[in-house]
């Protein structure tokens, strides 16, 4: 093996002097050598939904009727409780002909809770391999 093969040479882009391929700086002008860009990160495989996962958007849409999203997520007691309270608040709103101040935040909470709990269900299912509740 010849010396040139053992230590391949390249040329400085700044001054044109020969420098070894593994040198970080040019010995002649001191300019830093161009470093090859880092390799792109390895692609993380993406997986489709696991069997039994809940669709958070569907849970949110079902919660337009407060409590149905929780029933879809498998939280039966919470779903029934929210449904009953939602019906009572709706009845109070209709009877008094005034929008109950509590009903709108309660309705929004029901939709938010259904969406977040569907995501929590899916995370637990992917982590442990079994449904959380």
Essential attributes:
two-stranded antiparallel ribbon, elongated, 133 residues, mainly alpha, 5 helices
What would you say this structure looks like, in words?
It is a single chain. By secondary structure, the chain is mostly helical. The protein has a domain at 56-128. The protein has 5 helices and 2 strands, in the order αββαααα. It has helices at 3-6, 56-62, 68-73, 76-96, 103-128; strands at 9-11, 18-20. The protein has a two-stranded antiparallel sheet with strand order 1-2. α2 packs antiparallel against α5 and α4 runs antiparallel to α5 (103-128). The protein is elongated and about 90 Å long. It starts with a helix and ends in a 5-residue tail after the last helix. 17% of the residues are buried.
Q: How many extended strands?
A: 2
Helix content: 40-55%
Q: Regions with pLDDT < 50 over 5+ consecutive residues? A: none
Biggest sheet features? 2 strands, antiparallel
Distance between the termini: 69 Å
Decide which structural class fits the backbone.
Answer: mainly alpha
Outline of the structure:
With 133 residues, this protein is mainly alpha-helical. Strands 1-2 form a two-stranded antiparallel ribbon. The protein has helices at residues 3-6, 56-62, 68-73, 76-96, 103-128; strands at 9-11, 18-20.
Please render the helix and strand layout as text.
Elements: H1 3-6, E1 9-11, E2 18-20, H2 56-62, H3 68-73, H4 76-96, H5 103-128
Antiparallel strand pairs: 1-2
Helix pairs in contact: 2-5, 4-5
